[in-house]
Amino acid sequence: MLNGFKEFIMRGNVIDLAVAFVIGVAFTAVVQAVVNGIFNPLIAAVFNADSLAGAMTVALPGGSTLSFGMVLAALITFVLTAAVVYFVFVMPLNKLKESQDRRRNAGIPAAAVVDPTTELDLLTEIRDLLAQNAAQRPKL
């Protein structure tokens, strides 16, 4: 049971997902700082309110309120996040893929990746060189 859990944790996709989550949380803080520090005050000034959450409120009977400003702040955060994800991640990867497809269609091979040499390959080569040197030495 523990070996299965260890294999699950050591898979690349689990580690990649954890890294993506941590970066996403940090990125959310940056986007919220931009929204709260720049956009909220600007929009709140237009609506003459202290913050965007306090702007565009509608009082309802019974004392509760609808806060359209809070919804607008969430929409701005979403749009900014989506824009940064698109322009920083999606668009460059699409350009890279298009470039690779053009090269492939033009018959230009992609960068050839040489198979990595394993320890067994190196040891075999060393053995063969030692045997070759031993055969070339004059016998005493």
Q: Which helices and strands, and how do they pair?
A:
Blueprint: H1 2-10, H2 12-46, E1 57-59, E2 65-67, H3 68-106, H4 119-136
Helix pairs in contact: 2-3
List keywords for this structure.
140 residues, mainly alpha, Non-ribosomal Peptide Synthetase Peptidyl Carrier Protein, Chain A, two-stranded antiparallel sheet, 4% strand
What does this structure look like?
By secondary structure, the protein is mainly alpha-helical. The protein has a single domain, classed as Non-ribosomal Peptide Synthetase Peptidyl Carrier Protein, Chain A. It contains 4 helices and 2 strands; from the N terminus they run H-H-E-E-H-H. It has helices at 2-10, 12-46, 68-106, 119-136, and strands at residues 57-59, 65-67. A two-stranded antiparallel ribbon has the order 1-2. A hairpin with a 5-residue loop joins strand 1 (57-59) and strand 2. The radius of gyration is 30 Å and the shape is elongated. The model has no long low-confidence stretch (mean pLDDT 79). It is found in: Cell membrane; Membrane. Homopentamer. Belongs to the MscL family. Channel that opens in response to stretch forces in the membrane lipid bilayer. May participate in the regulation of osmotic pressure changes within the cell.
